[in-house]
Amino acid sequence: MAAPVETSSPEHNEDAGKAAATETTRSYWRWHRDDFFPEPSFASWGAYRRALGETPARLRDRLAGRSTDAAELGAMRRRSENEMRRCLTWWDLTWFGFGSVIGAGIFVLTGQEAHDHAGPAIVLSYVASGLSAMLSVFCYTEFAVEIPVAGGSFAYLRVELGDVAAFIAAANLILESIIGTAAVARSWTSYLASLINKPASALRFHAPSLAEGYNDLDPIAVVVIAVTATLAMLTAKGTSRVNWVASAVHVVVIAFVIVAGFIHADPSNLRPFMPHGVQGVFRAAAIVYFAYGGFDSIATMAEETKNPSRDIPLGLLGSMSVITAIYCVMALVLSMMQPYTAIDRSAAYSVAFASVGMRWAQYVVALGALKGMTTVLLVGALGQARYTTHIARSHIIPPVFALVHPRTGTPVHATALIAISSACIAFFSSLDVLSSLLSVSTLFIFMMMATALLVRRYYLRGVTTRTHALRFTALLLVIIASSIGIAAYWGTSPEQWQGYMVLVPAWVAGTLGIQLLVPAARAPKVWGVPLVPWLPSLSIATNLFLMGSLGKVAFIRFGVCTAIMLVYYVLVGLHATYDVAHGACGGEDDDEVAADDDKKVAAPDVEKADDAAGGGR
Prior knowledge:
By secondary structure, this protein is mostly helical. The protein has helices spanning about 10-15, 15-25, 35, 45-55, 55-65, 70-75, 75-80, 90-100, 105-120, 120-145, 155-160, 165-195, 220-235, 235-265, 275-290, 295-300, 310-335, 350-355, 360-395, 410-430, 435-460, 465-490, 500-515, 535-545, 550-580, 590-615; strands at about 205, 215. It has a two-stranded antiparallel ribbon with strand order 1-2. Helix 9 crosses helix 17, helix 12 (about 165-195) crosses helix 13 (about 220-235) and helix 12 crosses helix 25 (about 550-580). Belongs to the amino acid-polyamine-organocation (APC) superfamily. Cationic amino acid transporter (CAT) (TC 2.A.3.3) family. It is found in: Membrane. It is a multi-pass membrane protein. This is Cationic amino acid transporter C-terminal domain-containing protein.
C-alpha cells in the first residue's frame, strides 16, 4: 500500500477531511510495485544491499521495540484506509464460536483416540483439553476487550513481546490458515462422498502423471473454498446469518447423536475405564485439543464488534463453555455404545449406530460433519483474513493486503490471498505431512499468549522499576523452564514421579513469587482474567505439557518451518517493519503516532473504562 497522501502546507494539514478525500480517490484495486513494497529499503538494489548491511542493528532495534495499545487502535488501523463495519453482537460471536470450533474433529478424533490411547477415559481427555482451551480463552478475551483490533494474537504479542515474537506467531498463523483450510476443504469432499454412499476419493480425479500424494485432484474443495471466501468478502453480517443457520442444523444433529446414543448405551462398556493408564489419557488430550481449535478467530472480529467489552466475553466464554460440555457428553455416548476395542477409528459414530441397528444414522452423522466443516471454512475465511489484514498493516507482508474495501467494509485482498493459496494446495493435496506441525504451532502461540498476559499485568515501561523487572523476568523464566521440564519428564519417564517433586514446586514457587514479590503494573480496564498470575501460569504449563505429548517429529517440522520463516523475516520483514517504525515510508513515526494517540484516544478510553468497571486502574 502506498503511503497516505500528505501535503506540507499548514492549511492542508489542518483539513483532515480533504486529506481523507484525497486518499479515497485511489482505486482499491492497485497492483503497482510501491503498493507491495513502499519501504525505502526496497526502493532499489543498492538500497536493499545497504539495508542488509544494517541487519544486526535493525534486528536489535526490533527486538527491543514494542507497539502500544493506542498505536494498534490508531495508526495501524488507519493503514487499511477504510474502516471495517461494527455490525456484530454477542449473539453473532457466540454462533461464530460454534461455527469455528465444532467441525468434523469431534466425529473423527474421538473414535481414533478412544480406540488407540484413552479408551472410555476419552471423556477425561476432553475435560483436560477443554480446561486448557478455556485458560487460553481467558487470555484471548482480556486482550480482545482491551485491544479490539483485527490482528488477534499477532497484535497482542506485538504490544507485549515485540516484533520478532509477533512475527513468529504471524508466520505460523498464516501457515495454519492455508494448510488448515486446504485440509478441511478436502475432508469436505470426502464427507460429501460418504453422504451419497461413495468411497472417500470417488469425487476426486486421479492424475497418474503427477507425483504420488499430489495426484488426486479435488475441484470440489476448490469450489467450496471459493464460495465461503466470496461470502466472507461480501459481508461479515451476512456471513454471520449463514453461519447461524448452518450451526443450528449442526446442533440439531449433535442433539440427535447424544439422545439416540444414550438410548442405546450400555454402562458395562465403560470397563476397563482407563486401559492405557494416565499417559494414554494425556496423549489423547493433546490430539483432541484441536477439536477446540478455531476460537481464536473470534478475537479477530473485535474490530467489527459493536460493544467489545460486553460482547467478546459473552461470545467467547459462553460458546466455549457449552462446546466443552457437548464434547464431553458426545465422548461419553460413544464410549457407552461400544467397547473401546470395537470403536472404528475413522467412522466411529456411524459404525456405533450401525452396531445397534441404526445404519441409516451414518447419513445423519455425515450431514452433521459436512455442516460443521462448512461453518469452519466460513468462519475461518473471516478470521484468517482479519489476521492477515493486521499482519499486513505492520508491513511484515505487503501492505496492499491490509486494505479494507470501501463498499463492503471487508478485507477483500487478504481474504483472496488465503483463499487462493489454500485452493492451490487443496486441489492437489491436503499436505498431511504438516498436520502435526499445526498442532505444535497452535499450542506454542497459546503459550506465548499466556506469557504476554503476565507481561502485560506485571511490566509497564516507565512504571515498573528495574529491580522489579529483573525479578519478574527471572520468575517468569522459572515458570517456563519448570513447565518445559514437567513436559519433558512426562514424555521420557511417564512411570516415574521423583522429578515432579522438584519441578512442580519450582513452578509453584515461580508463580507465587510473581504474586508476592512483583507489584502489578496495571489492572484490566473493563474485563480481566481472574486469579492472575495463577491461571496464565497454569495455561503456560498445560500448553507446554500438551506440546510434549506430540512426539519429536512434530517438533522437528516446527523447527524447520520456523527457521525458514525467520530467513524471510531477516531478508524482508525486518527491513519493512524497521522502515515503518522509524517513519521512513512517508508517514509518521509509530512512536509519535502512539504518543499522540495516547493523549487523544487512550486517556479518555481509560476514564470511560474506569467508570464502567468502578475505577479499574
